[in-house]
User: Fold these one by one.
Assistant:
Number 1:
Amino acid sequence: MHRIQWEEAQQKHVILYPEGMVELNQSSAEILKCCDGTRTLAQIVSDLEQKFETTGLTDDITAFLGVALQNGWINQN
Amino acid sequence: MAGLTKTNITPPRWLTAELTYACPLQCPYCSNPLDYAKYQSELSTDDWKRVLTEARKMGAVQLGFSGGEPLIRKDLPELVKHARELGYYSNLITSGYGMTEETILQLKAAGLDHIQVSIQASSQELSDHLAGTKSFEHKKSVAHLVKKHGYPMVLNVVLHRENIHQMPEILAMAEELGADYIELANTQYYGWAHANRDLLLPSKEQFQKAEQIAQEYKEKVGGKMKILYVIPDYYEDRPKKCMNGWGTTSLTIAPDGMALPCHSARELPGLDCPNIKNYSISEIWHDSKAFNFFRGFDWMKEPCRSCDEKEKDFGGCRCQAYLLTGDMFNTDPVCSKSPDREVIQHAIDSAQASANLTNDEKPLIFRNSKNSRALAKIN
């Protein structure tokens, strides 16, 4: 139902769903791209902290994933 | 109109492809123009492919295949496939009429993302009456097929005085059909709905009761079924932000190739809406008179011009201003600041005065080619 894709004209990722669209900022897109059904929350945090050479992302990522879950952008198994 | 530089123009995001005006249904609130029978010619498959390609290149990403009934076009799967290859999210807005399991499989294979099925009421008798065509049972089976093949089940019910009392049953029907979304859209009074307004516009009490029922149901079902309730603007005191602003987001292509800033715009005088047969989508979007006509704020009259809310609603709907006040530059009369606000009250009063008339005294005008030809005064 939801599809995430890169939009060249907008230079950003968007989530597409029936008759609607959400534009994502870079960090949201990075988090969602990690939601591939294989990684755990801890893995997503450590992968992104490594990728962006930073620490302390747990709270931000958890909060965003809560929003994503509520909107049906991702599912929890 | 004047004073706009090209850099102000945002690219189109939503493309509505009205593939045909032909439709097996005859809903008396249809948003197609009253004189649609005048426009017999339809774009070719290649024309449509070019439209999709060019609009996508500019940034359009949501695509609605609409009509009339888009399933009538035999090249629909081919167009869906082209859209998918270009990266559109494609929505099929259908009555469901004529849809078979084979069609759904074909469209799914072509890459269609979403199917929205309209149902006219919760009972067969009323639904078939409003559609002007026996279709209720078929629509329900289509809803099951949509679900069976893994599509989100999106139902659309247009609300008006003839069916608004069925609100609890409509919601129960949607739940029973396994709807993921139900769009309860109060009639917008343009085109055929405007011609039938006296018979369709509910009272404020009816509308408030229906909204309350929808609200309670929303709480009951939680996130399981999303309920989208589209308000009727006659009972609001501010106009809608029509089309998210003229020429900012939305591009509609009519069956004959006319490019429209909104689907009603071909009824506005003097816009000279361009046809895609003569221009590229980019030329149409950036340079045409029609798409620049109500961009920005310079076109506004008072009270809009000096209003501190003008950036919120852009003065409301141009088509509604024209239809109800005769001047498309006026403030949308739905706004309580409009000097023409009384036309809305007159419409409400007139509808109430018709509430007790029988069908013989004041019949609904069904949307069909015979009525359209009569209204357009053509043979």
Note: The longest helix of chain B spans residues 204-221.
Number 2:
Amino acid sequence: MERVTFRFNSDSGAEYLYDDVTGNIFPWGSMEEAILKRELAVPLDDSEENLLRSAHGDEITAKTQYCRQWRSQYQAFARPSTSGLPVPTPDQIKPAVWAGCKELILIVTENCNLKCGYCCYASGTYKYHRKPTNRTMSYEQAIKAVDWFMDNVSAQLARNPRKKYGLSFYGGEPLLNIKLIKEVLEYAEKQYPDVFFVVLTTNGTLLTPENVEILKKHSVSVAISIDGPEDEHDRLRVDLLEQGTYKRIIENLSYIKRKHPEYWNNYLMSLSVYDPQSDVEKISQFFDDNKDVVPRCAFVNMVSTNNSEYYNRFKKEDFDLLRKRMIFLRQKYKQLVTSGKEPGSYLNIITGTSLVLMLMRGRVADARDTFVRYTGCCIPGSRMTVNVNGEINMCERVNGTFPIGHLDQGGLNYVRIAQLVQEYQEKILYKCERCPITRLCFMCFSSAEANGGIMEPRGFCESTKNRIHTNLADYVSIMESNPDVELAFKKKSLELLRDRILIES
Amino acid sequence: MTYFRLNMGAILKTGGKGAVLYDVIGRRIFLLDKEAQRLLQECENRMPVKDEGLAGSAHRFLDLMVSEGLGFYYSHPTHIDKMLTSSPINELEMLGPPPAYKIVNWSITSRCDQACHFCPASLQQPIWQACRSCVRRANSSEIPSVFDNPAHLVKQMADLGIWGIHLRGGNPLLEWERLTAILNCTRSQPHLRVGITTPGTGRAIEHIISLYRYPNVQLNVVLIGFEDRSDRRLPEANSVRSTQYKLLDTLRQCNALFSIVVVISDKTPVDREYASQWVFKRWGMIPGFAEFHPSPENGSREFRFNTIQTNRKPLLLWRNPEEFFQRTENNACVSGIMEITVDGSVKPCAGCDDDCGKIINNDLRHAIKGRRLYELWKMSKDKIEQCSDCPLGIACSDCLAAERLGTIDKRVALGYCPVMQDGDLYANAGRFEHQGFVYLLSIEKGLERCPT
């Protein structure tokens, strides 16, 4: 039996306990701690013994009963030790993969008209990722992927006729292969009507009037990379001639706003990436000041640290400054939310998302897959990514050195997937049973990827625990400060999460 | 300063009719008087407990709440993260988990060999739990092509996660081939349970008994024999009654699984209690009830559904916290259930007339793709006009068809809820039917058991 809780304080100094068994947050104090220890047969120290002796008998009785209620109903606070997670066989892994599959991502080209400074493909700082090439996906390969996908999710659709799947176009720059995108959309609409929601991730430079007509016609949600005001954006988002791209993108967006205001409003979103030299305060202000042209920000991410030399260029001062700016933004966000005001879209994402995830955390009745019971990991294949040549990866984020199948070789290789799951269990999940934040952890295959497989990322668990600790404290502080904020916050959170699900495709 | 907060599993609901405190894990319901409501609302709004209160009755009341494990004192305006058993992400509809499909009520024929005075029922007719009975709706025309390929439909139902198929009519025994064809299809779905609701007439008893050759079959016999009684003796002279009783006696002798539903109408000369005892005495089981009243055009007098007997509203306790939260978001009566009518329409139940889709080419999946069915499933008490102001909704299990008709015809609403007009729940505590899980809480009197 392993206790899986941790204590934290809100800004007001109130104490709380997070319990990973139930996913609940309990107001906590020395007496509750002593009572729980006694219930779990953990030796009490002298001060705890004294506390229980000197406290009011009725209060101790009531709190003990309360603790026992949670223990008996949900086995709260402590997780029984097991002999480890079950290792999947290929036969077991097949239904698990397809039951959890929610998206088909097509890499329609490996080419790009930009050469962004942090790009995992083009910057040369990510050693395991592929390099840009002129290869594009053929129509036959794309249609084969769509049919294969639909064939395999048929059981899931039979269970849930309302289910919709993401169909995402990714690159390189996918608009370099707009002809294929158009053909695939026409095919999918005809063969599988009302099954897909379509998302395209683009650098925004090729949003020409002709391309926009096609995207609008097929109700494609478009996520456009915009890293902030011109100087911020053009610092890293440059074309092959090292020229900035900001002006071109803004021109395109202005055109869409003018010609297709409803489409702009309902289907366009911004993605933003930052690094230690980004002035995130200024970027946040930029999104607030330019919301007439720049679509609302729906996803903000730091440049990936995985297997990269990208961060070698930064000094300690850069990281310190970024940390300071992030703290400032977080304070600002908390002030706005607690006073019932609406934060701007960038602020809402860069700060709010981590708090949203606290609110949306899993609870006791939320089922988790037996084979990857802990962390934020899915069974490989939930976001099936098909490369230009038909090779299949578990999602678009992984580096491509451990594919899980090939369209031309019978689809998924379930033996390989079972091996990968086992590897993840052995290298990552082996210690999670004792971890108090498994319901909040965001570790997955992509954050643990190495060359050809999985490797435990150094310091990940410790830094995640620290982040979760801060996030929970901020979440509770917001809730403490204003009794009315919870409902509005929840509503907003669901909207944010819906966007996130769309955008992550 | 001292603060008092209710625990995360103690959910306070307030409305125009007063306040109810739900002890979700302890499975108790507390009706609050106005003073207790005011005090707890202040506490829930993070207001400190007043000093004068600490010395007096309010303090005693809060101490009582502590000793009952419903809340504790704190030195800070503490946030209580109210209990949930599932992540709010489940509210993301099609992006979330699949709907929890449970039961299909499948009306396989509109033919019937009886001529009950309340059947076929008009759309305006107040009906209580028509789904349990064999009542037909007026204007329902049978489309045989719906039954072209029962194997395909049954397979689709099983794929959806449906665990119960309830075959209704009219009298499904009159469509023997269709009935047995469907039962044959269920053989390949061993997890499916099949109920057949029938008056039990129109077919020889040995034929009816032969239905038990199919796996997981259970008959539900609709007793219409109480209808034409003129006194309280129960002679079996009436041929329908005689047939029904013989069938039920035989089923009992065979140890077959069966259930009984008693139909009550405005012309039924016995009340629910009497019928219930009589059935229990003869066949050893408590029957279910379905109830019919004349539509507003045909009757003007006030009425009370007999099912809500002697002016007492039945309350239903949740089995576990998961069910409690399920009820807060869903209509407990219809959630997970759909009715397929003889013309292939999909409705939430036999009593509601909302068309939620149509089965074309034996495709059930396409018929339930739209939003309407799920909107009705999610029509919790908060969304029922006459119930939205009542904080007791989570423990109240009404028939959705009656609720919806009640929004149009107030007589119907009053017919199933004795406290609807009289307001205050605490003052009307004696009007609830429950099994000892309801308590009264007041500042003055503390904790008392609510009369059962």
Note: Residues 239-253 of chain B form the longest helix (15 residues).
